[in-house]
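Hi,

I'm pasting everything inline rather than attaching a file, because the server keeps stripping attachments. The sequence lines come first, and each chain or strand is labelled.
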Amino acid sequence: MEEEILIFGHKNPDTDSICSSIIMENLEKKLGNKCKAVRIGKINKETEYVLNYLGIDIPYVENINNDQKVILVDHNESTQSVENIENAKILKVIDHHTMNFKAPYLLYYRAEPVGCTSTVLYHLYKEKNIEIEKNIAILMLSAIISDTLLFKSPTCTEEDKIVAKELEEIAGIDVEKYGLEMLKAGTNLDDFSEEELINIDAKEFKKENAKYVIAQVNTVSIEDVLEKQEKIEEVINKEIAEKNLDLFVFAITDILNSNSEIISLGKKANIVENAFNVNLKNNRAFLEGVVSRKKQLVPNIDKNI
Amino acid sequence: MEEEILIFGHKNPDTDSICSSIIMENLEKKLGNKCKAVRIGKINKETEYVLNYLGIDIPYVENINNDQKVILVDHNESTQSVENIENAKILKVIDHHTMNFKAPYLLYYRAEPVGCTSTVLYHLYKEKNIEIEKNIAILMLSAIISDTLLFKSPTCTEEDKIVAKELEEIAGIDVEKYGLEMLKAGTNLDDFSEEELINIDAKEFKKENAKYVIAQVNTVSIEDVLEKQEKIEEVINKEIAEKNLDLFVFAITDILNSNSEIISLGKKANIVENAFNVNLKNNRAFLEGVVSRKKQLVPNIDKNI
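And the predicted assembly:
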């Protein structure tokens, strides 16, 4: 029996990671490959909106077998992948992130400097002359809307906009209306405990001797989230102690006005002052115009840590 | 004035590195980008045959300016690139090797598990619907013939063969006849000093605390090369001392019969005995059926060092 390839995105999956896994399954199957899209973490509220809209689901896996054949989408660094990724055989990587990747064997690697993995996948369909069905177009659009915050994030490229325009016709939806509803669904934080809040979209980074986490939540009301600041700090400090982190930055991003308030904790908490030219007050700072972890938070923190 | 992008392959360039640089320049120019193919080392005899056949040339650069925009072909590891690659801005990588790559910014990365970079480039032309001219087809074929030793190397994939078949028509040459002449031209080692011989196609590798070099020459007569063994060992031992190497493996590959004789020196010289299940005698061993550094020499040495 032919072995089934597992396709998955990063830990704490966002809409791009989930949608791109499902899209890649569709593409690989059309190319005749036996495969299955899975997730390695909990679906967030925004992604839930998309999956409910389409009436589809994606199974969860906790870890993988040794020598499991896998395709990674929307990430390449092992720290952001499934626990035992070192034991897997990575057949392909489809991504749009900075790179820190090693493999002692040949594989297919495709990264493009665009705002969303689904934009890269769109190119793959076009190159292989494979028709993009309505549901796939909606998945691609959802991923692009999510990663670019409806084309307002600085990570959004001209190519993402062009692809979204072409997808809109196939999808047959009003992108602005659908997109706002989807983003708003993602900002409903009522059901989350503080532990969950700081893990909705958290990524761990390593640089020489420093280990840090940048977590992000999207909201339409920063104030609502800050009401829980005391309890949030408590769970962040617990996380810092458990994982021996030097820094934990929790960004609360106002997706309507494109700003963020950050809470910075850990023994290197103060480096955000230089990084963003702000003063921490009550462990917090307001970052005007900052919405993107990849383009704004990570590079500035990385430079200063 | 728009900045010119430099395109180059690895140190000690082989035919794939040189041809793929020139092919990529052609492709990028057709896409409207200002660029120039260059080489970062001496042309070998085999590549010289190709360039003479087509009446073309490729300029040499010793190093690059800070922030120079570059495209890497046929390699991705910084140890195999131009000295000051750390200061460059890598826009694209087109490759078919194992990966050890970091970049703190987004870029276009395209690697495929095939025998030759030119096979990947062929796919890029097809995807972009760009016509492959006769000269470009001959360059692609030359690279594929070189990297696969006329389709006999274990690195050769079905895809390389399919692409070569399609290129043969455009190129209008007898691949077998042209290929043998090209490979034989590459085995003319008369003009080389021993210092040059061990550097014709040498690649350096690092693994934890071990640093080693695997050098390779192609020949139609292993005996002819072995006549110089004493002097070859002398220059290898000099290289080991200067670069503080743990191991230097010099493979003399018989391209007609697909075997290699290796000379193994350095304080870890004996690891080749386990790696290939042979006994070193007079620092040498015969490796039946071994022709590929990438698929045979590197993985077995890497496992045992």
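Residues 15-30 of chain A form the longest helix (16 residues).

If the labels don't parse on your end, tell me and I'll reformat.
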